[in-house]
Amino acid sequence: MERPTGCGYIPGMTRAAVALALSLLAAPSAAAQKPAPAAGPPLAGFAALQVSVFPAQLWRADTTAWSRGVTWAAVRAAFDSTLQATLEERGLGRKWAYASDVVRIAKRNPTYASDPYALGVVRLRAPAELKAGDPIPTVLGDNLRPFTALGDTRYALIPIEVRAQGAEVVLRLVLVDTRSRTLTWGGELLAPGGPRMAEALAQRVADLIIEP
Predict the structure, then answer these.
(1) Among 29, 134, 159, 202, which is 20 to 30 Å from 141 by CA?
(2) pTM of the full predicted structure?
(3) Domain membership flag for residue 133
(4) Which residues of the chain have pLDDT under 50?
């Protein structure tokens, strides 16, 4: 079976983001667990698989006043928890592991698992680094594997960076196969900035996996 092969328009995504998503469809993997073909959202085929959602990693402000006043730790916590709640409400339930589970694994295994808030994703901030099938940075692969091994998952959904863009925010998101250590999917999502951006971004991510 193949990974998802379609990427329809998702509310809140720019045309550039849709084009990027289309160019980053998953490459075949030799490993056993593969998603079913998806006719709906681009990541719908992964809903029934074992995926770990990691905490959001990086924040980038711009010159707008609202973004300079953002407390990233608070926004990240709100986004991580809201994303979990949104996916559970959409019907995903506990099929996946969420950021709270990842953090719990790190606390229980401090000598084995690395810092879940510092995975080593800096290279993936650049659009040129988002190519499906390419190997992920070695440090990122090394940091991810203990979490997915302990959590009995294979794929890692990683919010790489939230960056301010005028009155809006852009979320760079990747899906990684932690066994083959390759990039499976990547794209960017656009949402309104400001006090409700965590909720808006969570909805955008959920739209990639489960239809509203």
Answers:
(1) 202
(2) 0.81
(3) yes
(4) 1-12, 15-31
